[in-house]
Design brief:
The chain is mainly α. It contains 5 helices and no strands.
Length: 111
């Protein structure tokens, strides 16, 4: 109910204007200029969320290893190893596997 109207409007706009936008030099230039900012924002969010997950007790404890969440570190290492081993693994699979590991480590086996 909330997402569907917006999705349909964007789908209609894309259907009718996609060809003209692909050939427009101004639009292509703007998209090329925005790309580094998007990558920077994604990197910033990744570092922020990763830091909050690995050190849930905050900045003061992060300077020592006492506040490190071992389960989060283990999930991260497992997924990085899986991604290095299976380079063609789709990101959706990585998200699904991380969700299953999170449920197992924090729900089933967690305290």
């Amino acid at each position: 109910g909330v997402v569907l109207p917006s999705f349909l409007i964007i789908l209609l706009i894309a259907h009718f204007f996609l060809q003209s936008f692909q050939k427009n030099r101004v639009v292509n230039g703007a998209l090329q200029g925005v790309r580094p900012a998007v990558i920077g924002l994604m990197a910033s969010v990744t570092v922020t969320i990763g830091y909050q997950q690995l050190f849930p007790l905050g900045v003061q404890v992060a300077s020592s290893w006492h506040g490190l969440d071992i389960r989060a570190l283990l999930i991260m290492v497992l997924l990085l190893g899986l991604r290095a081993w299976k380079k063609e693994l789709h990101p959706i699979w990585v998200i699904g596997i991380s969700a299953v590991l999170g449920v197992l480590f924090y729900g089933v086996w967690g305290v």
